[in-house]
TrEMBL record:
Belongs to the cation transport ATPase (P-type) (TC 3.A.3) family. Type IA subfamily. It is an enzyme of class 7 (translocase). This is Potassium-transporting ATPase ATP-binding subunit. ATP binds at residues 360, 364, 391-398, 410. HAMAP family: KdpB. Mg(2+) binds at residues 533, 537. GO terms for molecular function: ATP binding; ATP hydrolysis activity; magnesium ion binding; P-type potassium transmembrane transporter activity. It comes from Stanieria cyanosphaera (strain ATCC 29371 / PCC 7437). It holds the Pfam family E1-E2_ATPase.
Length: 695
C-alpha cells in the first residue's frame, strides 16, 4: 500500500489536488532544467563530494579533448573523439544529478511563489494606547501591537483576536475554502494568520510576530528550501559516500603502475572513467532529491514541517502518543442521555445540567444545553448575576456560580465526587452504576452536582473513527507502539482502547502526566511522536521528538511543535510515520542499488583496460571493444540517475513490515537487482553504440 492512495487520508488527498492545481508541471521542469545549469557553480558542487569528483574529472577530460597529449602519449589511447564522448557523458551525469535536485526543489519553489503572492505589503490600522488609529505599513508591525481589521481586508500579521467576532477565509494557507469563525478567548478560534482574509465583520488583533517572522514567512522559507540543512542521517551518509569515493580514488591511482608492469599502459581518460563508474554517483546524485521530496510529500499532506530532521524522525518513531477525544474518536461529543441518581428525576437533572452548562461554550456544553431544553428544562435564575466557571483540563470540571450562592458543577466523575465531598455531601451508591453503564458504551460520563447534592450523569456519546484498528495494526507491524492518553475515566478509556486497538492507554491523565509519559519512553531510548492542540499540550509537544500541532490550536502549541497540520487532523501522524519510514527506506534502497551496480561496471571496464595485455578472457560480458565497454559503462552510469528520479521523488513502495523484514526484502530486491540490472543495461548499450558505429 502506498501513502498516496490510502483511502483514509481523505483530507490529504483533497489538498493534494488543490496544490497540484497551483503548480504546473511544465513550468516545473523548465525551471529545473535551468537550475541544473546554475548548480554547476563549483561552490554548489562542493557540497556534494561524489559529484564534485565527477565535475573535476569532466574538466580534465575536456582538457584532454582539446589536447589529447597533455599528459604524454600512449599508443592507441589518446583519441580526441573518444575523449570528447567521455567528456559529454560525464557532463550529462552531473547535469542529471543537478536536475534531480532541482526537480525536487521545484514544487516547493512554485508553492513559495504562490504563497508570496498572497503576502502583499498592506497598510494596517494600528490602535494606539490613546485609542487613536494610526495607519502604518504592515512591514512595521511588531509583536504586541494592536491592530484593527475589517471585512474585505487581508490580516497583515499573525496574532490573537482580542475583540470582535468575524469569519476569516484561510484558504491562502490551508487550501480550505470554507470560512472559519474567529473570536477571542477560546483556544481553538482566537489565533489568526497574516495573509488570510476577513470576509465579514471586524476584529481587533494583538500582533504576535515581528516583521518577517510570521507563519507565512516561515512557511515560504521552508517550502522554498532556504532553511534546508542536511539532517544528521544525511550527513552521515554523505561522509560515508565521500570515504568510499576516496577509497576508489586510491584504488584507481594504483592501476597505472600495475598496467605499465603488465605492458598495457592506461590513459588518464580511461582511469577517470573507471573512477566515475565506481564511485557512488547514483546515490550521490539522488541523495538530496530524496530528502527534499520527503519534505514535499509532507507538505502535500498539508503539514508544515519546520525541519527535514523532523520528517526523518517520523520514520524512526517507536512510540506514538495520541489523545482520545478528537484523535481516535470523532470528537464531536454530544449529550445523548441524562441518567438521574440519588432519588432525583430526569427533569431535575436536566435543569441542573442546563444551569451548569449555560456559560460553557465547548461543543459538549452547547449540546447539553440543547438536550436539556428539549426535555423542557428552564433557567430559574438571572443569568447576568451568575458567574460561569470555565472548564479546565486540571480541574476537569465546569459550571456556574448561581446568584443565590449555590454552585452547580459538571465534570469527570472523580472530579465531581471530590467536589460533592468537599461541599459536605455524600456520593450516592447508584452513581457508579450509571457512570459504568455510560463508560462501557465507550461514552464520556459527566457527573452533575449542586453543592453536595449529586444529581446524575450526562452521557456524552463519541464514536471511534472508522479504520482506526487497521491503522494501529499497520503501525504495530512497522514496530510502532501506540499509547492513548485521555483525561477520561479508566473504564471509558479501556473500552475505547480495546475497540480502537491501541497497544496501551493512560486514563485520567493531567497535562503533567502527558509530558511524564513521553519522558519515560525517551528514557528507555525510544523516539516519541505526539499530537496536540492546547496550550497545556505545548510542553509535551516540545518534549516529543516529533510534535504535531493542530493549526486550530494555540500559538503556544504551534511554536512548541516541529510540525503543524493545516487541516488539524491528528491521525495524520500515522501518515507522517509512513512518509518518514518511506524516506529512510528509499535512501537505503537506492544506496544498496548504487553500490551493487559497481560489480557490473567493474567487469565492464577492467577487462577493457587490460585488453592490450591479452587478458581478453576477463571480458565476461563479451563487450565489443575496449572503448565501447568504457563508454557503455559510463552511459549506463549517467542514465541510471534520471531513470531513478521518479523513484527518488515518489519514494519506494512502502509495506508495513518490521525493520528486519524490510531490510531482507530490500537487500534482495535492490541488492540483487542492482547487481543484475547493469549487466543487462551495459550489454544493451554496447550493442546499440556498436550498431550506430560510435566506436
Ligand atoms: N466542558 C466540560 N465541562 C466539564 N467537564 C468536561 C468538559 N469537557 C470535558 N470534561 C471532562 O474532563 C475530562 C478531561 O477532558 P480533556 O478534554 O481535558 O481530556 P484530554 O486530556 O484532552 O483527553 P481526551 O481529549 O483524549 O479525552 C473529560 O474526560 C471529561 O470527563
Ligand atoms: K558510479
Ligand atoms: Mg483533548
Amino acid at each position: 500500500m502506498t501513502v498516496n492512495n490510502r483511502p483514509m487520508a481523505a483530507t490529504g488527498t483533497r489538498h493534494q489536488q488543490n496544490k497540484q492545481k497551483k503548480v504546473s508541471n511544465k513550468g516545473l521542469y523548465q525551471r529545473a532544467f535551468q537550475d541544473a545549469f546554475v548548480k554547476l557553480n563549483p561552490k554548489v558542487m562542493l557540497k556534494n563530494p561524489v559529484m564534485f569528483v565527477v565535475w573535476v574529472g569532466t574538466i580534465i577530460t575536456a582538457l584532454l579533448t582539446i589536447n589529447p597529449d597533455l599528459f604524454g602519449s600512449i599508443p592507441g589511447e589518446n583519441q580526441r573523439f573518444f575523449n570528447g564522448l567521455v567528456t559529454v557523458i560525464l557532463f550529462l551525469t552531473i547535469l542529471f544529478a543537478n536536475f534531480a535536485e532541482a526537480v525536487a526543489e521545484g514544487r516547493g519553489k512554485a508553492q513559495a511563489d504562490s504563497l508570496r503572492s498572497t503576502k502583499s505589503d498592506t497598510t494596517a490600522r494600528k490602535v494606539l494606547p490613546s485609542g487613536k488609529i494610526e495607519e502604518v505599513s504592515s512591514t512595521n508591525l511588531h509583536k504586541g501591537d494592536i491592530i484593527q481589521v475589517v471585512a474585505g481586508e487581508i490580516i497583515p500579521a499573525d496574532g490573537e483576536v482580542i475583540e470582535g467576532v468575524a469569519s476569516v477565509d484561510e484558504s491562502a494557507i490551508t487550501g480550505e475554502s470554507a470560512p472559519v469563525l474567529k473570536e477571542p478567548g477560546s483556544d481553538m478560534a482566537s489565533s489568526v494568520t497574516g495573509g488570510t482574509k476577513i470576509i465579514s465583520d471586524e476584529l481587533k488583533i494583538r500582533v504576535s510576530s515581528d516583521p518577517g517572522k510570521g507563519f507565512l514567512d516561515r512557511m515560504i522559507a521552508l517550502v522554498e528550501g532556504a532553511e534546508r540543512t542536511k539532517t544528521p542521517n544525511e550527513i552521515a551518509l554523505t561522509v560515508l559516500l565521500a570515504v568510499l569515493t576516496e577509497v576508489f580514488l586510491i584504488v584507481v591511482a594504483t592501476i597505472p603502475p600495475i598496467a605499465n608492469y603488465v605492458g598495457s599502459p592506461v590513459g588518464v581518460v580511461t582511469l577517470i572513467s573507471l573512477l566515475v563508474a565506481l564511485i557512488p554517483t547514483t546515490i550521490g546524485g539522488l541523495l538530496s532529491a530524496i530528502g527534499i521530496a520527503g519534505m514535499d510529500r509532507v507538505a502535500q499532506f498539508n503539514v508544515v514541517a519546520t525541519s527535514g530532521r523532523a520528517v526523518e524522525a517520523c520514520g524512526d518513531i517507536n512510540t506514538l502518543v495520541l489523545d482520545k477525544t478528537g484523535t481516535i474518536t470523532l470528537g464531536n461529543r454530544l449529550a445523548e442521555q441524562f441518567i438521574p441518581v440519588n432519588g432525583h428525576t430526569e427533569a431535575e437533572l436536566a435543569e441542573v445540567a442546563l444551569a451548569a452548562s449555560l456559560f460553557d461554550t465547548t461543543p459538549e456544553g452547547k449540546s447539553i444545553v440543547k438536550l436539556a431544553e428539549k426535555l423542557g428544562a428552564k433557567i430559574t435564575f438571572e443569568p447576568h448575576s451568575a458567574e460561569g466557571i470555565e472548564f479546565s483540563a486540571r480541574t476537569r470540571m465546569s459550571g456556574t456560580d448561581l446568584p443565590n450562592g449555590k454552585e452547580v458543577r459538571k465534570g469527570a466523575i472523580n472530579a465531581i465526587k471530590g467536589f460533592v465531598r468537599s461541599r459536605g455531601g455524600e456520593v450516592s451508591s447508584d452513581l457508579d452504576d450509571a457512570y459504568e453503564r455510560v463508560s462501557r458504551l465507550g461514552g464520556t460520563p459527566l457527573g452533575v452536582a449542586l453543592d453536595g447534592d449529586m444529581y446524575g450523569v450526562i452521557y456524552l456519546k463519541d464514536i471511534i473513527k472508522p479504520g482506526m484498528r487497521e491503522r494501529f495494526d499497520q503501525l504495530r507491524r512497522m514496530g510502532v507502539k501506540s499509547v492513548m492518553l485521555t483525561g477520561d475515566n479508566r473504564i471509558t478509556a479501556s473500552v475505547i482502547a480495546q475497540e480502537a486497538g491501541v497497544d496501551d492507554f493512560i486514563a485520567e491523565a493531567t497535562p503533567e502526566d502527558k509530558i511524564a509519559v513521553i519522558q519515560k519512553e525517551q528514557e528507555q531510548g525510544k523516539l516519541v511522536a505526539m499530537t496536540g492542540d492546547g496550550t497545556n499540550d505545548a510542553p509535551a509537544l516540545a518534549q516529543a521528538n516529533v510534535g504535531l500541532a493542530m493549526n486550530t490550536g494555540t500559538q503556544a502549541a504551534k511554536e512548541a511543535a516541529n510540525m503543524v497540520d493545516l487541516d488539524s487532523d491528528p491521525t495524520k501522524l500515522i501518515d507522517l510515520v509512513t512518509i518518514g519510514k518511506q524516506l529512510l527506506i528509499t535512501r537505503g534502497a537506492l544506496t544498496t542499488f548504487s553500490l551493487a551496480n559497481d560489480i557490473a561496471k567493474y567487469f565492464a571496464i577492467i577487462p577493457a583496460m587490460f585488453a592490450a595485455a591479452g587478458i581478453g578472457s576477463l571480458n565476461v560480458m563479451g563487450l565489443t571493444s575496449s572503448q565501447s565497454a568504457v563508454l557503455s559503462a559510463l552511459i549506463y552510469n549517467a542514465l541510471i540517475i534520471p531513470a531513478l528520479i521518479p523513484l527518488a521523488l515518489k519514494g519506494v513502495k512502502f509495506r508495513p513490515l518490521s525493520a528486519n523484514q524490510l531490510l531482507t526484502r530490500n537487500i534482495l530486491l535492490y541488492g540483487l537487482g542492482g547487481i543484475i540490472a547493469p549487466f543487462i543495461g551495459i550489454k544493451v548499450i554496447d550493442l546499440l553504440i556498436t550498431g550506430v558505429g560510435l566506436s
